Amino acid sequence: MFSLSRRQLLVSAAAPLAAHAGLAHAQSKDTTIIVGYPPGGSLDAMARVLAQRLGVLRGSTVIVDNKAGFSGNIGAQYVAKAPANGSVLLMTALTTYAINQKLMGTSMGYDLLKDFQHVAIVGYLPNVLIVPASLPVSNLQEFIRAAKAKPGGFSIATTGVGSLEHIAGEMFKRATGTDLLAVPYKGSTPGVTDLIGGQIQAMFVNTSTAINNLKSGRIKALAIAGPNRVEALPGVPTLTEQGVKMGNDVVSIFGIAAPAATPAAVVNQLNADLNTVLKEAEVSNRFSALGVDVVTESSAFARNRITQEVGTWDKVIRDTGITLS
C-alpha cells in the first residue's frame, strides 16, 4: 500500500501556505500602472486616481508611468512582456486597442486577447458630437439639414485615420446621408481649436473634452454617442433619441490589464481591490466629473467585454471600409 513519508507530508502541507505567502508578497510589493499616452488626458487622470487609492488600500506604493507613442502600443508592448506577478499593469484604452488590432494586425506587437489578463473594466466614456458656438444650428436635426444643404461644404475633425473619432464620423455620415469632409489632426486639442475658430464644423470628442470646452461657451454639444445621457451633460440628448441610429454606440472603454501569465489568484485580488476603490465616493465623484461612468464587475466580465469590443469594431471597420493605407 502506498504511504507518504514524513518529509513528503511536511512538503505537502507547506505548499498551500507557500502559495498564500507568495500571493501576499506579490500583492504587497510596489506596483506600476503604465499609461500608453502622454500625461494630461482622461486615461492618465483615471490612472492617477486609481493609483493613489490603490496605494492607500494596499499599504504600498502605486505609481503611474507614461510610455506614450504608436497609438498607445508602446506602453501595451511593455506590459505584455513585463513580469507576470501583478507588479506592472496597463491602464487600457480598450476601444482604441480593439480598433488598432483590426487596422494594424501583427504590427501592433502584441495580441490584445492573448497577451493580457484583462483584470477589470473601470469605466465607460461616451463620445459627444460638438459644433462651434458660432454655427447657426441649435440641435442635431438642424445640423444635419445644414450639412445636406452644402454637400462637402462641412468638415469634421478627426485625430487621425483609423482613430475612434474618424470611425465615429464615418458611421455618422452613413447613418445620416451627409457628405462631411474628414480632416485629420494630431490629437483632439488642435482639432477643437480649429472648430472653435470656425474652420471645422463638427467633431466627435470624449465627454471630458466636451465638458471642459462647454464651460467656455465656445462650442455646442449636439448629441451623446452612447446608450444613455451623461450626468455631467444633462441637457444633451443621445443620437438615438434624435432619430440617428449608427449601428453601435461610440463609447471609450477603459480598464486594467496584466501580462497573460499572471496567476488567477493575483488577477482576482487585483479585481477585488479595484472594485473596492471604484466604489469610494471620492473616486466615483472624480470619474463623474470627467464624464466617466464607473464600472465594478468581475475579471470574467472584463474578458468577455473586450472580446465583444474586438468583434464590434472589426465589423464597423469592414462596413466602413476604413484602412490605414
From TrEMBL:
Entry keywords, A to Z: Receptor, Signal
InterPro entries: BUG (IPR005064), Bug_dom1 (IPR042100)
Key word Iron-sulfur present: no
Top-level lineage group: Bacteria
Signal peptide from the UniProt entry: 1-26
UniProt keyword Signal present: yes
Family the UniProt entry places it in: Belongs to the UPF0065 (bug) family.
Listed name of the protein: Tripartite-type tricarboxylate transporter receptor subunit TctC
